[in-house]
Design goal:
The complex is a heterodimer of chains A (249) and B (290). Chain A has 249 residues and is of the alpha+beta class. Chain A is built from seven helices and eleven strands. Helices cover 20% and strands 19% of the residues of chain A. A three-stranded mixed sheet of chain A has the order 10-1-11. Chain A starts with 11 loop residues before the first strand and ends with a helix. Chain B folds into two domains: 128 residues, no CATH class; 134 residues, no CATH class. In chain B, helix 1 packs across helix 5 and helix 1 packs across helix 11. The chains are: A alpha+beta (249), B mainly alpha (290). Chains A and B meet through strand 3, strand 4, strand 5, helix 2 and helix 3 of A and helix 3, helix 8, strand 1 and helix 9 of B. The structure holds iron/sulfur cluster (3 copies). One iron/sulfur cluster binds next to helix 2 of chain A. Chain B: GO terms for molecular function: dimethyl sulfoxide reductase activity.
């Protein structure tokens, strides 16, 4: 049934650090690579080598510019995938029961053999986290790499989502956000992790860590700076005469 | 939103068909025999035709029967169940006037209620979506219901009822346009809340995730020019309400009645096209498209 569970035992999810993300898109590629080969239908591309390529992705990286009232603008890379919402509208709108939220870990999944590809769940998701695969006609979304995180066939270090494992900047963290003692929960508390579009009432599990203020050059560049200050502002004597003579030429 | 022909045809035709069924269920007009048969055939043609059109945009229409299972939470599922129940009850009811010259009042009332319920559940599929602020209002069901009843009255040839219901529907349509125009702005959702970065300064979409298009852009980001939309609204309003009302006020003739119906249907199609095309899904914010 597409009823949402009253509460889930754990709230597994991602914490994405907007301060450290360098916008390399490695998570996009590794996500597509892992998920096209494993759980569910492959992530198809349409016209991949043509003039107008497009395809299904479960994770995409946007870039935004933030211009504060004062000071320089900041560029922020912004990865976005399913936030595994506690109050997931995509689950309750599904007419077939294909979309569901798991009681044991809160992961939101699609049972592809029940999905009729009506697209309503994608309409209901404010974040654009679901994409209908054009080749398969079924809904695709981030699975939180459910086929990695519990997979005993993988070495322990690999039992995290593919995007987390790949991120070269360490900008993606994975864990139980329902346990206040977990590393991810501590990180969220420490850095003021935030919800996207909280006004939508979806209660996302995934959290975003805001960018930290950049280092600023205030008054002094270097402790040696005073020693390097120009000694004579206005040239005098012979140099002054030379300066003037050269200017006249 | 992408104004897909399948959903426009679906909501327009099934709205009209179930609207007509409401009146037939109430015994207005009180017809029997062949005349009744033709009325029911038209109503079923429209309602079933619309429902069939809605399956065209499914990725897996062969599994559509699974959509009857989740009525506890899903308006789409409720719509499917209500539609089938309405069609079954009204089919049973039709046997009375068509073959036996009888009217089973209670069954008719039940069928009429289910038909109206179908239109309501259809409208709730759209009205429930918080992600599309323009639709997310109680006025959306009112709009769908008033259009369906006006169309039903027109199709069932109830001139005086149609005059009243068309006028009401026209007013609701105007109110819906007026009120929903500021819905996205009023929702408080903008690129700032979407990214959580709004408190730090003005947020601007700098670079999209991909150079090409994608499902999200094709499905959710449809931008209609303001001028173009205003013009279409005028056309929709004229065809759906003004022309039929004028035709109904003229001395009755079957040609005028037919023209009134055709004009109304064309107008509702135009209004439905705008209903989708002008609906701003908040995901467009992430792409700097709002
Ligand atoms: S992010 Fe979208 S797809 Fe994921 S759970 Fe929330 S509403 Fe559903
Ligand atoms: S597209 Fe599939 S998963 Fe989504 S609402 Fe329709 S049936 Fe459910
Ligand atoms: S958790 Fe897995 S499916 Fe989800 S974005 Fe990361 S790699 Fe993709």
């Amino acid at each position: 049934m597409t009823d949402l569970p009253e509460k889930t035992d754990r709230k597994m999810g991602l914490v994405i650090d907007l301060d450290t993300c360098v916008g390399c898109h490695a998570c996009v590629i590794s996500c597509k690579g892992w998920n096209t080969e494993n759980y569910g239908a492959p992530l198809s591309d349409q016209n991949p080598y043509g003039a107008d390529p497009s395809g299904t992705f479960l994770n995409r990286v946007h870039s935004y510019e933030v211009q504060p009232e004062q000071g320089a603008a900041q560029l922020i890379h912004f990865p976005k995938s399913c936030l595994h919402c506690e109050d997931a509208p995509c689950v309750t709108v599904c007419p077939t029961g294909a979309s569901y939220k798991r009681v044991e870990d809160g992961i939101v999944l699609v049972n592809e053999s029940d999905c009729i590809g009506c697209g309503l769940c994608a309409w209901s998701c404010p974040y654009g986290a679901r994409e209908l695969d054009l080749a398969e006609g079924v809904m695709k979304k981030c699975t939180l790499c459910v086929d990695r995180i519990y997979n005993d066939n993988l070495p322990e270090v690999d039992r995290v989502p593919s995007c987390v494992r790949t991120c070269p900047a360490g900008a993606r963290h994975f864990g139980d956000l329902g346990d206040p003692g977990s590393a991810v929960s501590k990180l969220v508390a420490e850095r003021g992790g935030m919800d996207l579009m909280p006004e939508m009432g979806t209660k996302p599990v995934n959290k975003y860590l805001p960018p930290r203020p950049k280092d600023r050059i205030d008054d002094q560049i270097d402790i040696l700076a005073p020693l390097l200050a120009p000694v004579a502002e206005e040239p005098k004597g012979f140099i002054a005469w030379l300066d003037k003579a050269l200017e006249k030429l | 939103m992408h104004p897909a022909p399948s959903v426009i045809i679906f909501t327009t035709l099934s709205g009209l068909g179930f609207g007509l069924l409401v009146f037939l269920g109430l015994g207005v007009p009180d017809v029997s025999g062949w005349v009744a048969f033709v009325f029911f055939a038209i109503a079923y043609g429209l309602a079933v035709g619309g429902l069939l059109a809605s399956t065209f945009h499914l990725g897996h229409p062969e599994r559509a029967w699974k959509a009857f299972s989740q009525w506890r939470t899903s308006w789409l599922s409720r719509e499917g169940c209500t539609a089938v129940a309405a069609l079954l009850v009204m089919g049973l009811y039709a046997i009375g006037p068509v073959f036996l010259g009888q009217r089973w009042g209670l069954l008719g009332w039940l069928g009429a209620a289910l038909s109206l319920g179908t239109v309501f559940t259809t409208s709730m599929i759209y009205a429930q979506l918080r992600s599309i602020p323009r639709w997310n209002t109680w006025l959306t069901p009112v709009l769908f219901l008033s259009l369906s009843l006006a169309g039903g009255a027109l199709l069932s040839g109830q001139i005086s009822l149609a005059l009243v219901l068309l006028t009401l529907a026209a007013l609701v349509q105007l109110a819906w346009w007026k009120i929903t125009d500021g819905a996205l702005a009023r929702s408080g959702t903008d690129l700032g809340t979407a990214t959580g970065l709004g408190t730090r300064g003005a947020v601007r979409a700098f670079e999209p995730p991909h150079t090409g298009s994608n499902y999200l852009l094709r499905e959710f980001v449809h931008v209609v020019g303001r001028k173009h939309a205003q013009k279409l609204r005028l056309i929709a309003f004229g065809l759906a309400f003004a022309v039929p009302l004028a035709l109904l006020l003229l001395p009755f003739s079957h040609v005028f009645a037919l023209l009134a119906v055709l004009s109304h249907v064309a107008g509702v199609v135009a209004s439905r096209w705008l209903f989708f095309a002008q609906a701003e899904h908040v995901v467009g914010l992430y792409y700097g498209k709002r």
